[in-house]
Amino acid sequence: MAGDAAAKGMKLDRYASALRRVASGKVVSASSHLLFRATVLATLALVFLFTFHYPSLLSRSFSLSSSSASHPSHRSLLMSSSSSSSPAAATYGGAAWEKEIRRSARPTRDGGLAVLVTGAAGFVGTHCSLALRARGDGVLGIDNFNAYYTPSLKRARQARLAARGVAVLDADINDGELLRHLFDLVPFTHILHLAAQAGVRYAMEAPQTYVASNVAGLVSIFEVAAKHADPQPSIVWASSSSVYGLNKITPFSESHRTDQPASLYAATKKAGEAIAHAYNHIYGLSITGLRFFTVYGPMGRPDMAYFAFTNSIVSGEPITLFAGARRDFTYIDDVVKGCLGALDTAGRSTGDAKSGKKSGEAPLRVYNLGNTSPVPVTRMVGILEKLLGKKANKRVVAMPSNGDVPFTHANVSHAAQDFGYRPTTSLEVGLRHFVDWYVDYYKVKLDVPKISKVASGAGGGKPAAKKKKKKAAAAMVTSS
């Protein structure tokens, strides 16, 4: 009996032990499931919070601004004013905004063009937009108003355009959503793509800016034109004489080699011409590239040589000249005529955004727009000295190997043949117009009388500030 009792006791102990192991396993399993669920919930919560608080990090496009804090986010451009605290974004989105877009882009003449102008508050963009509007074409502008040079000058140009009925959006050409929305609102017949990061030397400081603007920005424009616009618009865009790079055969012809760029700026423009070839071939886009040669004139760019030298001569600061430098200085009015001629003669695109197919070959063209008369930079300074009534404190140095080229000289026979391009403004006359505008805009008093009056339409201001007042102004020989 005692043996049976002992056996039963051992069985009970094993049974109890088994029960404890099962219970322990269930507890561990339950704990594991609970921990797993808690981890999943915590992860979802973190994703939600991240998305809610940092949406821009999940949908970021290139920013062409020097300071993102000074510009609205790209997506805010399509929102109502209540959704953004940014002053610039407050005017974007909604029925009133869309009505203004359509009004600005609507031609006022029979057969007029509807043109989207990028870089519209830039030097060439402003003059082209004014000329298009003056002849009755519809114009809508885009500009990101970056701080490469004083934004106040760009705002003054924007104000002048507004006075002529041209709206300029404070926007980024890499904002594909905005571009698609604009093409939903307006059946643009043409795009005049002038937005770009200019300057030869600045590329050594901010190379990514050039890639974002001159390469990615160009692709952004081609993408919306090829895959969203219905019908596809014809595109005219600003290449540059810089693509000729180290070519020493003059005058530069469109048939000359362009595979030796001397600067990153030139390389991005050369890349743009190759990209244009691809979009023309694949999607049937009608594309015309214009190689500008050292454009100058009223409302110009402060980083260009003639403008920087004028600032220095007026303020009595020294200027630095590169020995032997010659430029094919081209007056803005002549360039505008070339741009409008290219727009008027651009053939139609042959692609279909809906089907993704093209019905035939579309035009792919490239033209030089220059003055055909290269001038030593020293002569340009001499003309400025005469117009300003003041001698420059000159220092002549050797040409640096930082992207500058010693000379430019345009052969424009192709543009002359295809759309009657013929530059007519001499450097003396063109600089006289520039100085008259400069004196009026900056309220400068000279010891010489004005010979002609050029209305600025942009109010007064102070001469463009320099980074260091005592630093000699170097020749800014950007060719575009």
TrEMBL record:
Keywords: Isomerase, Membrane, NAD, Transmembrane, Transmembrane helix
Location within or outside the cell: Golgi apparatus, Golgi stack membrane
A molecular function (GO) term: UDP-glucuronate 4-epimerase activity
Tree of life domain: Eukaryota
Domain NAD-dependent epimerase/dehydratase: 115-345
A GO-annotated cellular component: Golgi cisterna membrane
Main location (coarse class): Golgi
Region (Disordered) location: 456-480
EC primary class: isomerase
Enzyme Commission no: 5.1.3.6
Residues that span the membrane, as ranges: 34-54
Topological category with respect to the lipid bilayer: Multi-pass membrane protein
Catalytic activity: UDP-alpha-D-glucuronate = UDP-alpha-D-galacturonate
InterPro entries: Epimerase_deHydtase, NAD(P)-bd_dom_sf
Family note: Belongs to the NAD(P)-dependent epimerase/dehydratase family.
Name the record gives this protein: UDP-glucuronate 4-epimerase
Organism: Leersia perrieri
